[in-house]
Structures are given as structure tokens and as C-alpha cells.
């Protein structure tokens, strides 16, 4: 909200920015319509568990199905929504949908664990934990079926306030995860003060795991350190079988990436659960991914 005002103020003194600000204003209007008119949709990307697990972990990823522009990826509106503060409405929409969908799957006998993304700004809103708790109750979803992902930098903006919100979110009984680990500047010893249970290694380290010895060293030591702190480790961006196998050797717990599955809509995930060998927990060696 403040950022938006700052931009509006800027435009008054610099007419060159007028076009851009008009575009920003119309994007904000469209984004509002998107949330209110249900143009957003959640996709789900399943993870492979190296040790067989009774439940399937997935990450919910938002997409915008724009009436004219079609499929809009999150990187084209999430950063903007963060700047304007409108992310708050989007986060509540995503939370509600993810919680509702998870409860639905559980009622249908599908043991799905849903992770979803929070933004830095979400942690500055003290009402979020109570709103989350109310949604869980409303939809009959247990908190332990949900993981909230936050990036390292989210906590660095205002550590005291962010940490307080994290503590209260964790007190609901959900899991917390550090997303894109390795891209920020925080150390594991710093993260240790946070009530997190999972660490997701950023895909920039995973992509070249088998070709860059330095990256393998980073991934290996991150897994070891994370495990010594009692954290579950997910590797992001697993695109090849070779990388998947190496991650297994390094003791990684979960793998997420196109090699396992691309993000798919809810119906697509159900089909994947029913038909993919991955979903049966089979070791994927020698099997073709279905996506
Ligand atoms: P993220 O949370 O790190 O999500 C993982 C991103 O990596 C997703 O991109 C996913 O589609 C992509 N990905 C998965 N496997 C692979 C792979 O093997 N290779 C490559 N190159 N990419 C892979 P997506 O869906 O475009 O989302 C991008 C980012 O947008 C997310 O990164 C997250 O930071 C943000 N985002 C997505 N949904 C939400 C949301 O509901 N709320 C918020 N606040 N942010 C979201
Ligand atoms: Mg994420
Ligand atoms: Mg990530
Ligand atoms: Mg990422």
C-alpha cells in the first residue's frame, strides 16, 4: 500500500513515468478482478519421497488464467502484488483454496500434504495466523497436513515481527519451510532460531549438481547440516534422472522437479496419483515420467 502511494507520488513529478503508472494501476484493477472473479487457479506439483512415505507431498503454485492474456505465470504478478500490498488478498485466496482442497482429498481417502508459498509481507500481518486457523477449522483441515513455505529474505526485512508471526503460525500445528535456500544471505545457524522443519535447496544448486563439483559440495553439506538440525530436505528443480539418483545418494529426503512431474491442476494430480508409478513410491529408475 505504501509502495503504491510512493509510486503514485513519483508520477506527479515525473510525467515520463505516467504510462508505466497507468499500466500498474490497470494491472492492480485486473488483479482485483482476478481474485474476486476466480480467475486464479492452483496447480500442484508432487514431490518424490526417497524413503517411501504414506503421504504424498505437493506444492501449490498459483496461476492466473487471464480472460485475454491467457495463462499468466506467478513471476509476472506476484512481485507486483508484493510491491502494492495486494499480495495479502492473493495469499488469503491461496490459503483458502489449498486448505479446502487438502481437506477434500483427505475426505476422499487421499493422504496429501500440501505446501504453499507465503510472501515476506504476509509475515508483517499479525492477523494471518488467526485467519489461517479459522480456515482450517472451517474446512475441516488438520494443520499438520499443511506446510507454509517462506523465503530466507522474508525474515530478514523485519526479523522480530516476522519471527513472531512464524511462531504463531507454527503454533497452529502446521509445518514451516525455508524456500529457495542458498539464494539469500542467511546462515543455517540463523535459521536455527526459526521454528522451521523443512529446507528446500534452491534449484540453481540442483540443476548442475552432477556437472559442477562446487554445487555438489554445497548440496551435500546443506543436506548434512540440515539433517543435523533435524530438518527435512527437499531439492527443487530436479530435471534429470541422473540428478535424482545423485540426490538419493546424498541422503536428500524429497525431490521436486519436472523429472518427477510438472505442476498440474487438481484433476491432473488425482490422475497422477492413480496412474503414475511415482505415486506408488516405486523407484523411478528405468521408468519414464508421465509428464
Ligand atoms: P517456488 O516457490 O520456488 O516454486 C517452484 C517454482 O519452480 C515453480 O515455478 C515451479 O513450477 C518451478 N519448477 C518446478 N520444478 C522445476 C524444474 O524442474 N525446473 C525448473 N526450471 N522449474 C521448476 P512457478 O510456479 O512459476 O512459481 C514461481 C515462483 O512464484 C515460486 O517459486 C514462488 O516464489 C512464487 N509463487 C508461486 N505461487 C505462489 C503463491 O501462491 N503465493 C506466493 N506468494 N508466491 C507464489
Ligand atoms: Mg515454494
Ligand atoms: Mg522454491
Ligand atoms: Mg524457487
Automatic annotation (TrEMBL):
Domain EAL: 24-277
Name of the protein in its database record: EAL domain-containing protein
Superkingdom field: Bacteria
Range covered out of full length: 506 to 796 of 798
Amino acid at each position: 500500500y505504501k509502495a503504491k502511494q510512493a509510486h503514485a507520488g513519483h508520477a506527479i513529478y515525473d510525467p515520463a513515468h505516467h504510462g508505466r503508472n497507468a499500466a500498474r494501476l490497470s494491472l492492480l484493477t485486473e488483479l482485483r478482478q482476478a481474485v474476486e472473479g476466480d480467475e486464479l487457479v492452483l496447480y500442484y506439483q508432487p514431490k518424490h519421497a526417497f524413503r517411501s512415505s504414506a503421504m504424498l507431498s505437493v506444492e501449490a503454485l498459483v496461476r492466473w488464467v487471464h480472460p485475454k492474456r491467457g495463462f499468466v505465470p506467478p513471476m509476472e504478478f506476484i512481485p507486483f502484488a508484493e510491491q502494492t500490498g495486494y499480495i495479502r488478498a492473493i495469499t488469503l485466496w491461496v490459503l483458502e483454496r489449498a486448505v479446502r482442497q487438502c481437506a477434500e482429498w483427505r475426505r476422499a481417502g487421499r493422504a496429501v500434504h500440501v505446501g504453499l508459498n507465503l510472501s515476506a509481507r504476509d509475515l508483517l500481518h499479525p492477523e494471518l495466523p488467526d485467519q489461517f486457523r479459522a480456515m482450517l477449522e472451517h474446512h475441516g483441515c488438520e494443520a499438520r497436513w499443511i506446510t507454509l513455505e517462506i523465503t530466507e529474505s522474508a525474515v530478514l526485512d523485519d526479523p522480530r515481527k516476522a519471527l513472531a508471526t512464524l511462531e504463531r503460525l507454527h503454533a497452529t500445528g502446521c509445518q514451516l519451510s525455508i524456500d529457495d535456500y542458498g539464494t539469500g544471505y542467511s546462515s543455517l545457524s540463523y535459521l536455527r532460531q526459526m521454528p522451521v522443519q523443512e529446507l528446500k535447496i534452491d534449484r540453481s544448486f540442483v540443476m548442475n549438481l552432477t556437472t559442477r563439483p562446487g554445487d555438489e559440495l554445497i548440496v551435500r553439506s546443506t543436506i548434512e547440516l540440515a539433517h543435523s538440525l533435524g530438518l527435512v530436505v527437499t531439492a527443487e528443480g530436479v530435471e534429470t534422472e541422473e540428478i535424482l539418483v545423485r540426490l538419493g545418494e546424498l541422503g536428500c529426503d524429497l525431490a521436486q522437479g519436472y523429472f518427477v512431474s510438472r505442476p498440474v491442476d487438481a484433476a491432473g494430480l488425482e490422475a497422477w496419483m492413480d496412474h503414475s508409478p511415482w505415486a506408488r513410491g516405486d523407484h523411478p529408475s528405468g521408468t519414464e515420467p508421465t509428464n
